[in-house]
Amino acid sequence: MIDHISLGVRDVKRATAFYDAVLAPLGMKPVISVDIPGRGLLAVAYGQDEHHPTFWVQLPVNGAPANAGNGVHIAFAAADHAAVDAFYLAALESGGSDEGGPGHRVEYHPHYYGAFARDLDGNKIEACCHAPE
């Protein structure tokens, strides 16, 4: 099951204005903002509520300008932290590369636990769990 999709953008504020208008008719609204002191607004998540963000607009984490293949990633829903850990280990053992090991990402929300990898073609994939453990 897909948990969420992230879309790399060049300007988060500009993208947010666009997606606020485009997604409102679909019942989606901004539910999370990642604004880090000294770095600024990095991402905005859309969904029906803050517990279920399904679409993110964000600056690519590698610092390169956003393009069609940079900043996009697919996140798979995991039942628990152990499943996230197993996903990450399997990705590395199968020839994938590390993009951020398993751990809490409290900048998203207090219980967010995820791991990131690149597949054999360089696509960014993630497994994440929202349940406290």
Identify the strand order in the major beta sheet: 2-3-4-1-5-8-7-6
* Name of the CATH homologous superfamily: 2,3-Dihydroxybiphenyl 1,2-Dioxygenase, domain 1
Give the domain tally.
1
Count of DSSP E strands? 8
Poorly predicted residue ranges: none
Task: Give an overview of the whole structure.
This protein has one domain (2-129): 2,3-Dihydroxybiphenyl 1,2-Dioxygenase, domain 1. It has two helices and eight strands, in the order βαββββαβββ. It is of the alpha+beta class. Strand 6 (97-104) and strand 7 (113-118) form a beta hairpin. An eight-stranded mixed β-sheet has the order 2-3-4-1-5-8-7-6, covered by helices on one side. 19% of the residues lie in helices and 41% in strands.
Topology:
Layout: E1 2-8, H1 12-23, E2 29-36, E3 40-47, E4 53-58, E5 73-77, H2 81-93, E6 97-104, E7 113-118, E8 124-129
Parallel strand pairs: 1-4, 5-8
Antiparallel strand pairs: 1-5, 2-3, 3-4, 6-7, 7-8
